Amino acid sequence: MDNYQQNSTWLVALLCLLLLLPVVTADAATQELFDAEVEVPNQTAGVRSRALGTALQEVLVRVAGQDAVLQTAAAKQLLASPDTLVQQYRYFNEPGSEPPLLKLWVRFDGEAIRKSLQQQGQSYWGSERPDTLVWLAVEDRGKRYLVSADDGSDVQQQIALAAKQRGLPILFPLMDLEDQSQVRFSDIWGGFFENVMAASGRYNPQAVLIGRLNRSPSGGWSSRWHLQVAGKPYAWSDSREQLEKLAQQGIDDAADRLASRFAVVHSGGDLDSVRISVSGVDSLNDYARLSAYLKGLTAVVDMQVAQVAGAEIDYTLKLNGSLADLTRTVSIGTVLEPVQSDTPGSYRLRQ
After folding, report:
1. Distance (Å, whole) CA 144 – CA 141
2. How far apart are CA 74 and CA 102, in angstroms?
3. Contact 241, 220 (CB under 8 A)
4. Is CATH 3.90.950 what the domain over 132-262 is classified as, yes or no?
5. Nearest C-alpha neighbor of 306 from the set 342, 278, 325, 347
6. How many other CB atoms are found less than 10 A from the CB of residue 297?
């Protein structure tokens, strides 16, 4: 059987299955956006009610991408009755805590939150979040070190906790012999980031966050941050009395900047309708993977197959946002890659 016949065979099967495709459900990464943990003194109803409000605030900031969302009518409406959004909750003791630290874990109705925010014109940041490599140089009252993936330092733990609260997927460098041969403390501390960016290549991150944290003799902390994403740099500085607050603010600032690029805002009215073309779709498995990916994108409200030609499929999409927003989103994923073409909206399926 030649290639033409093979393509024809699977395309006929594809078209027969179009109407039979199941609705794509939220994946684990999406569901986790609507989870939160809150420390509580006991399991009484009053304490739980207040804790649910605190947990919902964390979730709203995470999925809106900015803490300013808490001042909006949409958020205030949701926060008036957080219990109506609860899908699951449970109590647990924080592992290793002594005395035992009681926490409440809760999962909220993500679809209800998304609809409420978007219907009222608020930004929404779904699961399309860039894997962010974090390089940290720390000077702690004369002690200098680079934070590694497994060092268990207070700095690493606080940064990881803050990233979890904002829904930012991060990783730390291994700082093995390969990393040590390329990156020195002075590179980060002095703001010479060429070696850092080169060493980042082995981790294939979609964003790189570089932090310089300094603890003064009096105990206060100061920091300088550099974020690189999609070729665009951001830089800022901060100072806090506590490491916990410094780490939280550093991650908050990074998440705010990332959300400004990847969060979706529907301003009301008719949705944008665009046509895209995807090449490299050579099998039913390819089609199923592509279909699930497109349906799961925050920006995609509706999707229709417009044309099938060999290993290329054209789709008509209704979008929250623009085609440029969609291209920025897929560029940080692992399913599609933009193709340089005279025709906007051309992509290739990654194999």
Report:
1. 8
2. 31
3. yes
4. yes
5. 278
6. 22
Q: Where are the domains of the chain?
A: 28-119, 132-262, 269-349
User: Which own/partner contact pairs does 150-157 have at CB distance under 8 Å and 24+ positions apart?
Assistant: 150/174, 151/175, 154/243, 155/213, 155/243, 155/247
Query: 278: closest CA among 330, 211, 332?
Result: 330
| H-type alpha helices, the chain | 3-17, 28-32, 45-64, 73-79, 110-119, 154-166, 177-182, 185-189, 194-200, 243-262, 284-296, 323-331
pLDDT single digits (tens) 220-257:
999 999 999 988 899 999 999 999 999 999 999 999 99
> What would the CATH number be for the domain defined by 269-349?
3.30.70
Q: Which residues fall within 8 angstroms of residue 156, CB to CB, at 6 or more apart?
A: 136, 147, 148, 172
* Contact in structure between 346 and 277 (CB atoms under 8 Å): yes
Under DSSP, the state recorded for 258 is H
Quick one: residue 293, left, alpha or beta (phi over 0 = left, psi -120 to 50 = alpha)?
A: alpha
Contact between 136 and 209 under an 8 Å Cβ cutoff? The reply is no
For residues 335 and 316, give the distance between their C-alpha atoms in angstroms, rounded to a whole number: 18
Amino acid identity of residue 34, one-letter, is F
d(CA 98, CA 313): 58
Residue 26: phi and psi, rounded to 5, are: -65, 135
Would you say the pTM of this structure is higher than 0.70?
Answer: yes
Confidence at residue 24, expressed as pLDDT on a 0 to 100 scale: 40
At 76, list the tokens. 């205030």
Backbone CA torsion sign across 145, 150, 153, 158: positive
Half-sphere exposure of 155 (CA within 13 A, CB side): 24
Which DSSP string do the residues of 278-302 spell out, in sequence order?
A: EE---SHHHHHHHHHHHHH-TTEEE
Q: Is the bond into 233 cis (omega within 30 degrees of 0)?
A: no
| Token pair belonging to 210 | 């570089």
Q: Calculate what percentage of the chain has a pLDDT beyond 90.
A: 75
Q: Tokens 């016949």 label which residue?
A: 5
Instruction: Write the DSSP symbol of residue 203.
Output: G
